[in-house]
Amino acid sequence: MQDYTWLTLTEAACYLRTSESAVHAKMEKGEIPYSEFEGQPLFHRSQLDEYLLGLQAGQTMRMDRTNPFSTAPEVLRGSTERTLLGESECTGDGTDVPDDFMAEACRLWDDGETFLVKAGVRGASCQFKGRPRLWVFPEKLQVPAREKGNEIYVELRKALADHFPHIISRATVRITSSSFSWRRFVEFVGQVKDICRRQDQEVASGIQSNGVEKRVDPSIYKHCIKLWEDPPVFTIVSGRQGCSAKHNNRPRLWFFPDYVRIPAEGQGNNMFKSIKEIKEKLFPNASTKTKVDISGPGFDVDRLYTFITEVKKLCAKASD
Fold first, then answer.
1. Is the pLDDT of residue 120 over 90?
2. Residue 200 and residue 211: Cα distance in Å, rounded?
3. Distance between CA 262 and CA 255 in Å, rounded?
4. Any domain includes 212
5. How many structural domains are present in the chain?
6. Is residue 224 a part of any domain in this protein?
7. At 21, phi and psi to the nearest 5?
8. Is the peptide bond before 144 cis (omega within 30 degrees of 0)?
9. Three-state DSSP class for 260?
10. What span, in angstroms and rounded, lies between the C-alpha atoms of 14 and 10?
């Protein structure tokens, strides 16, 4: 970033290693002083330095709303004229990645309240209310799988692909990629946080008037297991969060308390395509091709039981 005295909102966010939305929130709270110029907030570098020093000392600056940062910028034209984006490290040209990507990514995520960071052996887990949403490493970022406790994996994976369409791996982006930029990452993290907040609001809206959270009927999960289990051919192998419905020791379905999934061919299910065809006939409007969401809108439990029964018939016929 060039050594300008006054910084735009975007430049200030980069200077503080945080998001623009976080700077806005601190402006509203009066924690970061700023001045208005032609309808845009501007930040004095020395004041931002004081703010950072206050954070290190465990203090929070408070600004007098009746007299907000009276020093106004006198010259913004001539040799210092530039766009609101500025000729800064936020230009997104692939050269803006911080030297210590993991540390800066953790600082960007952590708000000290609901968005927290848990350190690991090689990397760090960026969590929302104790649930992993992103994994960051010195050389890459990754969206944790659903099986790792990230129940909004599909939505986050889509957001990742929208921001980094060049990625080859399903859920991993390396910072050495020529099209990776810190600005894209900041925008991606902002969207991830928005998704987390929205999902949290949707859960909150599922609270009944008596204050009891609506939950998936546990009897559905138990009945799925009962429908399938018929040893020694049709067996159930329990896991940490769900169980594997097997036919002749090969996985055919995975049962979880809130959804049923079809294991892929690479996971030992050589009947994947045939089972998926049955699922698509019974659930033509499902949002995913391999999963039946028990807690989703319009869910039909009888259709789910029919699906499991039809898969068993398919397996039995293949054994004949």
1. no
2. 16
3. 9
4. no
5. 3
6. yes
7. -65, -35
8. no
9. strand
10. 6
The torsion angle over the Cα atoms of residues 152, 193, 124 and 149, rounded to 10 degrees, is -20
Read off the tokens for 145.
């799988």
3-state secondary structure of 124: strand
DSSP 3-state of 271? coil
pLDDT category of residue 57 using cuts at 50, 70 and 90: low
Angle between helices 153-163 and 182-205 (to 10 degrees): 150
What are phi and psi for residue 142, nearest 5 degrees?
-150, 145
Last residue of a domain, one of 156, 173, 207: 207
DSSP, res 133: E
Look-up of token digits 């989703």: 296
97 and 203 share a domain?
Answer: yes
Farthest CA pair distance, the chain: 87
Q: How many helices (H) and strands (E) does the chain have?
A: 9, 13
In the block, tokens 């000729």 appear at 87
Q: Which amino acid type is present at position 315?
A: C
Residue ranges making up the domain that contains 44 = 1-91
> 131 and 202 share a domain?
yes
CATH value at residue 21: 1.10.1660
pLDDT in tens, 249-286: 999 999 988 889 999 888 889 999 999 999 999 988 77
Do residues 269 and 263 touch, judged by C-beta distance below 8 A? yes
Q: CA Rg, the chain, in Å?
A: 26
Instruction: Assess contact for 171 and 142: CB atoms under 8 A.
Output: yes
Name the residue among 169, 187, 167, 162 with its Cα closest to residue 177.
167
Omega prior to 33 cis, within 30 of 0: no
CB atoms within 10 A of CB 239: 11
CA distances from 197 to 27, 95, 114 (A): 20, 31, 10
Q: What is the pLDDT of residue 297?
A: 64
Give this prediction's pTM.
Answer: 0.41
